[in-house]
Structure formats: C-alpha cells, structure tokens
Design brief:
Elements (H helix, E strand, L loop, with lengths): L1 H23 L13 H6 L13 E7 L3 H4 L6 E2 L20 E2 L2 E2 L5 E4 L3 E4 L5 H12 L9 E6 L3 E6 L5 E4 L7 H7 L12 E6 L5 E6 L10 H4 L6 E4 L3 H6 L5 H23 L2
C-alpha cells in the first residue's frame, strides 16, 4: 500500500512539474532573439515614418530667413483668451502671445493650406508631405528656400484586453514600437496570450485590416510594419485558457472539476490512514 501511495505521489509531482514547464514557455517574448544576425538587422535598418491619415491633427510651419517671406504660409495666431473656444483645434505653440492653429486632415486626406488651397497629403509620410509643400512654395511663390516642419499632435495607440492598464495612450515620439506601447500599458498580465496579439489598423483610405502577431517569435524584430505602430493602431490582447477557466466559476465544468479534486483528496486521506 505504501508503495502504491509513493508511486501516486511521484506521478502527481512529475505531472505538476511538466505543467509548470509548459506554462513558462508561454510567457517569454522574442524567444532566441539573440540568434538574429547583424546582417539581418542591417537589412531592415531604416527610419520608420508614420503615414498621414484622415482625422490627423497636424502642426505645419513654414520658416524662411526673412519672416515676411513665409508669413502668408502660416496660419494666424489665436489670441490666448480665445483658446478655450478653439481648444479642440489648436495647441500651444507660441507661449503667452497665443497659439498657432493646426490642420485637421479631412476624410479625403486633404487640408486647406494658405495660398496653396486644398492640398492632399493623406497617405504620405511626414517627410514626403514636407517635400511636397516645399516644392509647391519654392521658387514659385518665394525666392528664399523655406524650412517646412510637420508634427503629429494626435499620435495615439489603444491597448486593451489582458494588460495591466488598458487605455488610449498618446505619444510625442512618432516612432512607437509595439513593445513600447505594451510597456506603457503596464505589459501583458500572466493571462495574456503572447502568441496571438491582434493588431487592428486603418489605412489612409479608411480600410481596416487585422493582423495576428506572435510576440514570442523573434522575427517580429525584423518586420517594420509590425514592430513600428501607426497612429490610431489598436492592440487587443486575448486571454489564455487559464483566464477562460477562471471566468467559468460556477459553471458545470468547474463544479465537476472541484468535485473530482475533492474526491481525490478524500481518497488520498483514506489511503494514508489505512497505510499506517
């Protein structure tokens, strides 16, 4: 009887150990990332730029050595006392004197730009849009070479599901990686699936796409289209089986499992008593 009991305990211990090992394998990110060669990284080493999308809020400034030359290509200042009336459209840019108005990209990817009129920049990168405005201004309208600067003012990413702090997060950096976004949301909980993260993305034409990402796969580091997020991207972290089981408290399956565990405990107790 003692032999049978010891054998039972040994089988139970080995089963728990194997389960623990398998559970650990679902936790790490970017498994064996150190095996990626420098040559592979070099192939994808490029500066990622976000694409301008409908509903983006942009700050666009044109500067020249002579302020008068570029004056007509900048939106007027909004007086400080009027900021509350236009808060959704302006951001502080000039201290106490007032704020520069910003541009809102419409559903067609266009903005109304001073002098140039209706200008389509949706679908372009920031650098491409700057070059487009530059070429349209110089030398047709002004003889001084302008400096065109564009900034995103609404670069945000939504992270929800099995993370510590779900929410919509704004970033000043326009090169946000998927790892940075998850870290900002407090990282995945132990119940979050690292191997099946859902990325919901909308392009400049309003078309949505869904991608599944395995964060345990080291190749994520080599896919710039996944590694770098675009503004308004949404990341959903699915729960794993453990979370699903925990959510079924009170269900028939859980009650059955509880009854089996209780019965097993009773058998172990009886066997222990009889073996003395």
């Amino acid at each position: 009887m003692k032999f049978v009991l010891k054998k039972f305990y040994w089988i139970l211990f080995v089963s728990m150990l194997l389960t623990s090992c398998n559970s650990y394998k679902t936790i790490p990110y970017l498994t064996e990332a150190e095996l990626i060669s420098s040559e592979e990284f070099a192939k994808v080493a490029k500066n990622y730029e976000a694409i301008i999308m409908p509903n983006d809020i942009l700050s666009i400034t044109v500067n020249t050595p002579t302020n008068a030359a570029s004056m007509d290509f900048n939106l007027p200042l909004v007086p400080q006392e009027a900021n509350d009336l236009v808060q959704s459209r302006v951001s502080s840019a000039t201290g106490g004197y007032g704020s520069l108005q910003n541009y809102i990209v419409d559903k067609d990817g266009c903005i109304d730009f001073p002098v140039l009129g209706r200008l389509k920049i949706g679908g372009l990168t920031k650098l491409e849009a700057q070059q487009k405005i530059y070429s349209m201004i110089y030398p047709q309208y002004i003889k001084e070479k302008p400096i065109v600067n564009i900034r995103f003012l609404n670069y945000k990413v939504a992270v929800f599901g099995e993370v510590a702090r779900p929410g919509v997060y704004s970033f000043t950096n326009e090169q946000v990686t998927i790892l940075e976004a998850l870290a900002t949301a407090g990282d995945l909980t132990i119940y979050g699936r690292r191997d099946n993260v859902m990325l919901i993305r909308e392009d400049a034409n309003g078309f949505r796409s869904v991608k599944r990402i395995d964060l345990q796969n080291k190749d994520v580091l080599l896919e710039n289209d996944i590694y770098y997020l675009q503004q308004n991207d949404k990341l959903y972290i699915e729960p794993n089986k453990a979370r699903a089981r925990n959510s079924q408290i009170g269900s028939v399956e859980t009650l059955t499992a509880t009854a089996l565990i209780s019965g097993l405990s009773l058998i172990i107790t009886i066997v222990s008593v009889l073996s003395r």
